[in-house]
Amino acid sequence: MSQAAAPAFLLGALAAFIAVLISRLNRIVDRTIVLNGIPDDDTVRSRLKADLPRLMRRAEMLNRAIFWAVIGSISGTLLVVIAFASALLQIQHERGVAILFMVALGAFTVSLVDFAREVRIALSEFDHYA
């Protein structure tokens, strides 16, 4: 049980992080739908469509971040399952669990890097208009 504490906290953090990423991605999708709905003859707002490539880049980064966070979650889940199964069967599992924990943390790190990149380009003057 004591060995499952760190992976359990990691899984909780990853679940919350995935929720944040999905929320941001949903906001981008909603904004893209609104911008695509602007008629081309609306000269006042049609300039806002210039923001679509930036929104697509952000969506790609968030999609990658979600992918890596899910990979980290799967690794963390496998880690807990293997740790309990090997404890039940009295099999040494330290190396396998250590490798899975490093994979989970590595995937989480890659996800955080993609998220940081997305945050860097998130704010623009286009975000302040309908």
Automatic annotation (TrEMBL):
**Per its UniProt record, what Pfam families does this chain match?**
DUF2721
The answer on whether this UniProt entry bears the keyword Transmembrane reads yes
Keyword tags: Membrane, Transmembrane, Transmembrane helix
Q: Which domain of life is it from?
A: Bacteria
Where do the TM regions start and end?
6-25, 65-91, 97-116
Cross-referenced InterPro entries, in alphabetical order? DUF2721
Q: What protein name applies here? A: DUF2721 domain-containing protein
Q: Which organism is it from?
A: Bradyrhizobium ottawaense
